[in-house]
Write a structure and sequence with these properties.
single chain, 128 residues, alpha/beta, Nucleotidyltransferase, domain 5, five-stranded mixed beta sheet
């Protein structure tokens, strides 16, 4: 937990309609960077899923999660943040069907050059 307090912390808000990822400053809840599936880029895809029949219960997928991670990664690099951490206990509380879709988000952050402390532990905990 000491490492989490000295680094920027990634917080995820997941619902059936969107995914929001924001990074907070160490020791405060001040948001330094944020990306979400509610941004303009995803609007067309979201609207198409609304009119789809049979109606889907999940309006974002691995591709959207990956793009949200990429956008967040670019924004973090822009402000000079290259290392973040996650609260593993908080992420474990996310239902497994949504947690599996987070792997592309973490992978896209790594591709941009942002290291994520704790993400490897999250992968070890997932059931096979």
């Amino acid at each position: 937990m000491a490492a989490t307090q000295s680094q920027h912390v990634l917080r995820l808000v997941l619902s059936c309609r969107n995914i929001t990822a924001h990074v907070t400053q160490p020791g405060t809840s001040y948001i330094v960077a944020m990306a979400s599936s509610t941004e303009q880029e995803f609007l067309i895809q979201y609207r198409s899923k609304l009119s789809q029949f049979p109606r889907s219960h999940l309006y974002w997928d691995a591709k959207v999660a990956s793009r949200v991670g990429e956008k967040l990664g670019f924004r973090l690099k822009e402000i000079g943040v290259s290392n973040i951490s996650i609260d593993v206990n908080e992420e474990i509380s996310i239902p497994i069907h949504r947690r599996r879709l987070l792997t592309p988000l973490f992978d896209s952050l790594r591709r941009v050059g942002v290291e994520i402390d704790g993400a490897e532990r999250l992968g070890e905990i997932e059931p096979s």
